[in-house]
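Journal club prep — side note

Before the paper discussion, L.F. wants everyone to see what a predicted structure for a comparable chain looks like in token form. Sequence:
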Amino acid sequence: MITVREVTSRADFKKFVAFPYDLYRGDRLWVPYLRSEVEYLFSAKNPFWLHAERALYLALDGERVVGRVAAIKDDELVTFRTEREGVFGFYESVNDAAVGRALYGAAEDWLRSRGMTRLVGPMNPSTNEECGFLLEGFETPPYIMMTHTPPYYLGLAEGCGYEKAMDLQAWLAPITERNLARLDRVAAGVRRRWPELELRHVDVKRFAEEVELVRQIYNRAWEDNWGFVPATPAEFDDVAKRLKSLVEPKLVWLATVGADPAGFVMAIPNYNEVLAKMGGSMNPISIIKFITGKKKIKGIRLMLFGVCKEYRQRGIDACLMYESNKAALALGFKEVEFSWVLEGNEMTNRAASMMGGRVYKNYRIYTKDL
């Protein structure tokens, strides 16, 4: 018999964190998360929880953990979207409809009791982090900070009454001189016509100022996107600090028009190529693997790419893409994943196509009325 228990003890929290490592054992494509990073996401140090609350649940068959889920009420989401919308995230389970019903039921009941009228997910814990169940592209490993989930998750969700809310795409493109040539011609033309446009990569010596500039662009450029919730200054600073040691400054470019921020692009090396060998922990051996392995990384993930709406359709996207990928080529990277991209995002789809890209993975966000 399947039972559900809310996580209220440290022992159960450890089981919640540990379950995916058991579930995906033997899956050569799953990349183990660093346990310390997962624990941090749920800790009081994460500023997301200053405006959100959650309940964590374990599904049990006897005392054996067979699934987990988080129910999340985000006040920023409710305020910005003006809807009583709750979130489910961090879903993992065995392939058992009874487990799915038990977990989704627990999340739904908790959110309903807090006045939510609709549920959306998975988001871990928001669209500013990982989200979506893998829909297509199961045969290749995920890039850094992208999900990898089994096909049966789709059926479990749909069997509990969930419907498609939005599909997200991942494009993959080779980084070559030939693919950069077309972008070079477009970017050169834009700069000739628009001499006040300035493009530069971030200055790590002015880290705090650069992060605030990027935050302004991020919130302006994404404000009309499906599912977007503005990142608070504390959240944005926190993410920036977590990523600082992973970012290659030459892959982060800013566009300004005079003193006005206009757009930016940020790519990071695909550290999953190294994390796959570390087993989810940091110890002397895994640290050595990381230090030696990161020099051999071949891919980058273009994870943030936006232009403020008043500056769109003027070629800034092509200029940013050209500079970022030109730097990536010089650094020895061979391919770029554009992810995730909302289906119908014409600007990014156009840029990815110009780079010779193709959609090779799709992810699905689900929704259900409560």
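L.F.'s comment for the group: The first strand starts at residue 2 and ends at 6. Keep this in mind when we get to the figures.
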